[in-house]
Amino acid sequence: MRLSVNNLACTRGERRIFEGVSFDLAPGEALVITGRNGAGKSSLLDILAGRLHPAAGAIRLEGAGERILPECLHYVGHRDALKSALTAEENLAFARDFLGSPALTPREALDAVGLAHAARLPVAYLSAGQRRRVALARLLVAHRPLWLLDEPTSALDTSSQETLRLILESHRESGGMIAATTHSPLFLKDAKEIKIDRIPNPPPSAGEGAERSEAGEGASSSSSFPSPGPPGHPLPQRGEG
User: How many domains does the chain have?
Assistant: First the structure.
């Protein structure tokens, strides 16, 4: 499966948030999306997930058969989206049954993020970092080739961040793709990067506070993310996958 985003723009209310965002993702590739608060990083992921409609541009998907993009992805947002009264294991079992294409069992997924001991605890009793790990464990209970992650390291300690990095790299090695927003380095090998920045003097048509990517004049740039060591069809946009 391949994903191509061309000249994407986002408007919230009457304000243009960003425009001219373009990138491609092939199997095994990762994209890191950076930019200051309010630049539109989360909105970009929301558009890819089908939660928002783009103001302009095209999203094309190749190799997915009759599936649309939201049916091919996992989305982990700022909120963990867990039921507090359910146990960690019950939350993952619900996600697996809802999403289909089961992969690891809930217990196996919790073990992979270091939470096997908390399987039967209600999520309400878990710390913020533990809840975040349960949310990330959803990535492992159902097969989805594209992972959209909004600040995935939020609330994670150093050890959990390294566990997450290994999970992400394993997904890429199996042909999966990742698009993640972050304020902290994810240390993903050979990842692409785009930075969304504010347009210093936006034209009147763009609206006050319009934004663009780092490349200037509403265009975005994709380049290799510094490593510390290591013809489709336009997609309809509909609900979250």
Answer: 1
Q: Would 222 be classed as within a structural domain? A: yes
Phi then psi dihedrals of residue 97, to 5 deg? -70, -35
Whether 6 is in a domain gets the answer yes
Q: Residue type for 231, please?
A: P
Whether 156 maps to a domain, the answer reads: yes
Residue 110: CA count within 13 A, CB half-sphere: 22
Residue 57 CB contacts under 8 Å (≥ 6 apart), including other chains: 5, 6, 7, 8, 9, 21, 22
Structure tokens at 129: 């970092």
pLDDT score for 216: 35
Gap between the Cα atoms of 108 and 130, Å rounded: 16
Which residues have CB under 8 Å from 18's CB, separation 6+? 8, 9, 10, 39, 40, 43, 44, 196, 210, 211, 212, 213
- In the chain, the percentage of residues whose pLDDT exceeds 90 is 70
- For residue 166, the enclosing domain spans 2-82+148-234
pLDDT more than 70, % of the chain: 82
The pLDDT value recorded for residue 218 is 39
43 is a domain residue = yes
Residue 209 in this model has a pLDDT that exceeds 80: no
* 198: confidence class by pLDDT, cuts 50, 70, 90: low
CATH of the domain at 223: 3.40.50.300
Evaluate if residue 222 carries a pLDDT over 70: no
For the entire predicted model, the pTM comes to 0.81
